[in-house]
Amino acid sequence: MTLPKSVRIVEVGPRDGLQNEKSFIRVSEKVRLVDDLTAAGLEYIEVGSFVSPKWVPQMADSSEVFARIQRKSNVTYAALTPNFKGFEAALERGVKEVAIFAAASETFSQRNINCSIAESLARFEPVMSAAKAKGIRVRGYVSCVLGCPYEGAIAAPQVASVAQELYTMGCYEISLGDTIGTGTPKATRRLLEVVGASVPRERLAGHFHDTYGQAIANVYASLLEGIAVFDSSIAGLGGCPYAKGASGNVATEDLLYLLNGLGIYTGVDMDKLIAAGQRVCAALIRPSNSKVATATCSPQLQLNH
To answer: When you count CB atoms within 10 A of the terminal residue's CB, does the N or C end of the chain come out lower?
Structure first.
């Protein structure tokens, strides 16, 4: 299949990246991160999550972050809203797009949100109805699409069933998440063949974690299958807390390097992106997980220049 001419990058660092970081980060630093990402040319940024701070304390200040960021009209600033209460809170902050999530694994669903897959989907019906009435677009996530920390391999038809449910409910796009980062290119292509028979491929996105170092390879496999939307996290922040040895999401810098090398347009500025990643890592007092940023900012590499 011909590679897409352009790709839309969905930046999930401020939400999916930061929510699992152990070091707390000030609101001002979160705002700076979102503004930096906007300046780098990203047109879709998942800013935060409206969820109980009891469960995700790192996201407790999402409302304030939304209030303080400098918004651009051509950029989507989205929020994760796991329930109707969260959806209402997002609306109060002028959020124009929200995301909901379900798992492809029954065990993961029970361990993560204490309900079955069917029950989780039923919980989203009020959100979907309200979003439709308010003209708010809803994006859907499916987790554990290429493996589960409890069940191991997940059958592709099971993933397709959950993805189709979300699509039928009204999600305009379904992001397929390799939550524990065990997927390989062959498994990725097989998954997209199966899910693509239930949900149009132009409505699918890839969300790959890099636990086993396969994220970039899986992105390329997805490109070959016609996927043109990918989630990524600045500096490779994040990672599933249930995945053994989890190293984080695919780094936006590394994803951009691949796409640039393939001649695929994104509209994102690499230098500004790397600078954004370095700043947030400095705030977190941790190194970047991005191979590109690490190489580019290496003192030895600069000396050789």
So the answer is: C
Distance CA 258, CA 85 (A): 39
Query: Which pLDDT belongs to residue 1?
Result: 67
Is residue 225 within 8 A of residue 204, CB to CB? The reply is no
Contact 160, 145 (CB under 8 A): no
Residue range 134-186, pLDDT digits in tens: 999 999 999 999 999 999 999 999 999 999 999 999 999 999 999 999 999 99
Count the neighbouring beta carbons within 10 Å of the beta carbon of residue 45.
26
DSSP 247: -
CA distance 18 to 25: 8
Q: Record the tokens describing residue 260, joined without a space.
A: 């640039």
Taking the C-alpha atoms of residue 83 and residue 124, their distance in angstroms, rounded to an integer, is 6
Give bridge partners of residue 139 from the DSSP assignment. 99, 173
How far is 174 from 140, CA to CA, in rounded Å? 5
Q: Are 211 and 247 in contact (CB under 8 A)?
A: yes
- As to burial, measured by CB atoms within 10 angstroms (0-12 exposed, 13-18 middle, 19+ buried), residue 236 is buried
Range in 45-49, 122-126, 194-198, 225-229 with the lowest mean pLDDT: 122-126
Q: CA-CA distance, 237 to 251, in Å (whole number)?
A: 7
Q: Given 144, 148, 240, 281, which residue is catalytic?
A: 240
